[in-house]
Amino acid sequence: MDGKEVFVIGAGVIGLVAATEIAKRGIKVTVYDSKKSIEEGADKASGVLSKRGLDSTGLPYKGSELNVLKGAWLYAGREMLKIKSEEEMAYVIDRKKLAKLCYEEAKKAGAKVLLGRRIEKERLKELAESGNIIVGADGAVSNVASAFGFPKIKEYVLTYKAEYSNAEVKDKEMVSLVFSEGARRFFGWSVPYSKSTIEVGIGISNRAKRSSMQAFKELLEEKPIKEEIENAKEEAGHASIIPLSTREKTAKGNVLLVGDAAGQVKATTGGGIIFGSLCAKEAAAAIEKNIKEGKSLEIYERAWRAKYGNELRLHKIAHEYYSSLSAKSFERLFRMARIFGMDDFLSAYGDMDSPSKIVKRFFLRGLAK
Ligand SMILES: Cc1cc2nc3c(=O)[nH]c(=O)nc-3n(C[C@H](O)[C@H](O)[C@H](O)COP(=O)(O)OP(=O)(O)OC[C@H]3O[C@@H](n4cnc5c(N)ncnc54)[C@H](O)[C@@H]3O)c2cc1C
Question: Is the pTM of this model over 0.85?
Answer without folding.
Answer: yes
